[in-house]
Amino acid sequence: MRLTLLLLALTFSYIGAYAQAPQADHIDIGEYGLYTTAASGEVVAPGTATGATSQLNNIQHLVTTRTVPAQLGVHFGFRYTVVGTPAGDSVRLHMVTIFPSPGLRQPGNPEPQLRSEYDTARAIGAQLYRDYSFEHDWELVPGIWTFQIWYQGHMLAEQKFTVVKQ
Known about the structure:
Elements: H1 2-19, E1 23-44, E2 52-63, E3 67-69, E4 75-85, E5 90-98, E6 115-123, E7 127-133, E8 143-151, E9 154-164
Parallel strand pairs: 3-9
Antiparallel strand pairs: 1-2, 1-4, 4-7, 5-6, 5-8, 8-9
């Protein structure tokens, strides 16, 4: 009898633990377009175009558009919410930016960079922000820029912007 009770207790604790594992179901994209931001730091991210991602605050939406001027200092992106359970827990997301042909040509690197990728932990239910900002002349490549957000091998969101020369 004790063995049966122990097995039942272990089964239910396993089921309870599994049910509470953080899970992202989908991503809701909110506003998108051009923004102003303030950087408060950087995080090393080797798979990105510049080798780092910025920690941002004071994110202000300027205009809703999918057309982006190729100018230094321009920030473009979107706000999003990870929908899943349990709210407040973090999930690991894979961020991808696909650059238009011929890609970004960073000085000193003979190979063009066609995409940027990094992983990040994001809270379920929080309003979040994903962007790209032009900081160097070699980043000003016109064409379709595609932002994707992946979770466990599945793309949950995609947003495209057209960068144009001014």
